[in-house]
Structure formats: structure tokens, C-alpha cells
């Protein structure tokens, strides 16, 4: 897909906006992905440079084996000339990442999310054969970002409600009430047909 991304480089570099060399090697303002546009790719190849700081010249591109680097002015011209619709910047991406992180943070704060997470983790822990304290500690270690008090509340709830029970070997296992769909599916070992059938003796 043809796309333009601005502000990809952070830190010290030469910027057409600032008009000053802040980093001796210089660097462009954004990148261009030509996608399947053969005409756009040919245009970039025709105006290719090999030194990063030369990208400050409007209309010049630098190939990095994946995309084309260019100055902001060059990319703005390309947007209009080749009618590129997919345009974004690092700020746009950061905003989306921040929104997604906040959404996840709110979700993780709910009891429903935590209970489902602990159930999933416990389903993969039963087979280890741990006793109660070690079992609970293992679940905690899988979720270091979860507050100790929240984990204690949920683990105690599952013991009280009988989702986790103690086996004859004193290890924690799932009860009949435990959601079966969360348990790992046992892999079926199929023997080759020739081994399943015995040859008749003559």
C-alpha cells in the first residue's frame, strides 16, 4: 500500500523546518512506501541520492532497502502529485498506541478480565503438579504487573468456590466446575495404519 509517514526520526538531525544542521550526518523528515505504484517508484529511482543530508534538496529520495527517505517538502509534493491517501506521522501512531494502552489498562482493572486471566494461567499450571502455596506463587509470578491484593482476592475466590481443589497427592488440580474450554486440549497421537493392523500368518 502506498503511504507517507512523517517525523520518523527523533533526536538530532538536519531539519528543513529548523533550517540548521544538528547532526553531522543529517537525516530526512519522513519515509515513502511506493507500494505497487510502478510510476511512483520510477519517479523516486530517477531522483535518487546516496547521502542522507542530500534528501534536504526538494525532490530527492534516499533508498534504505525498504522505503524511500525524503524531506517534508518533497513528501508533500508527492502526496499531491500521486494522490496518496494514506498519510500519517509518528504523533498519529503514538496517539493510537496511547489510546490502545489506556483501553487495555481500563480492561485490566476489571475483575472479569483478571478472573479470566488467572483461570487461563491456572489451566496451564495444573499439569506442573504444584502444591497450594507454590501454585499460587507461580500464578503471581506470571502476572507481576497485577497488585498483590487483587491476586490474593481472586485466588482465594477460586479455592472457596471450588474451581481449584487439592488432589490426593496434595497438588492443586481443576475441579469438575472448572471451565473445560480453558483446559489445554490433549494432543491425539495417531499410530500409522500399518502398525494398527496385524498381518495374518499364512
Structure commentary:
- The chain starts with a strand and ends in a 6-residue tail after the last helix.
- By secondary structure, the chain is an alpha+beta fold.
- Helix content is 39%, strand content 11%.
- The protein has a 5-stranded mixed sheet with strand order 3-4-2-1-5. Strands 6-7 form a two-stranded antiparallel ribbon.
- It has 2 domains: 3-94, no CATH class; 110-182, Arc Repressor Mutant, subunit A (Orthogonal Bundle).
- The model is unreliable at 9-15 and 21-26 (pLDDT under 50).
- The longest helix is centred in the middle third of the chain and has 19 residues, at 90-108.
- It is built from 7 helices and 7 strands; from the N terminus they run ββαββαβααααββα.
- A hairpin with a 5-residue loop joins strand 6 (164-166) and strand 7 (172-174).
- Helix 4 (111-123) packs across helix 6 (148-160).
Amino acid at each position: 500500500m502506498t503511504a507517507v509517514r512523517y517525523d520518523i526520526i527523533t533526536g538530532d538531525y538536519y531539519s528543513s523546518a529548523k533550517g540548521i544542521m544538528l547532526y553531522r550526518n543529517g537525516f530526512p523528515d519522513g519515509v515513502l512506501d511506493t507500494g505497487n505504484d510502478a510510476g511512483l517508484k520510477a519517479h523516486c529511482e530517477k531522483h535518487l541520492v546516496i547521502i542522507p543530508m542530500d534528501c534536504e534538496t526538494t525532490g530527492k529520495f534516499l533508498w534504505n532497502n525498504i522505503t524511500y527517505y525524503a524531506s517534508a517538502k518533497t513528501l508533500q509534493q508527492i502526496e499531491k502529485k500521486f494522490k496518496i491517501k494514506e498519510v500519517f506521522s509518528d504523533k498519529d501512531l503514538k496517539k493510537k498506541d496511547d489510546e490502545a494502552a489506556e483501553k487495555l489498562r481500563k480492561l485490566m482493572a476489571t475483575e472479569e478480565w483478571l478472573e479470566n486471566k488467572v483461570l487461563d494461567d491456572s489451566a496451564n499450571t495444573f499439569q506442573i503438579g504444584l502444591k497450594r502455596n507454590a501454585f499460587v506463587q507461580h500464578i503471581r509470578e506470571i502476572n507481576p504487573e497485577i497488585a498483590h491484593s487483587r491476586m490474593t482476592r481472586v485466588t482465594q475466590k477460586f479455592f472457596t468456590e471450588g474451581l481449584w481443589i487439592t488432589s490426593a497427592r496434595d497438588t492443586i488440580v481443576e475441579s469438575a466446575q472448572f471451565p473445560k474450554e480453558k483446559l489445554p486440549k490433549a494432543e491425539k497421537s495417531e499410530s500409522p495404519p500399518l502398525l494398527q493392523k496385524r498381518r495374518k500368518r499364512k
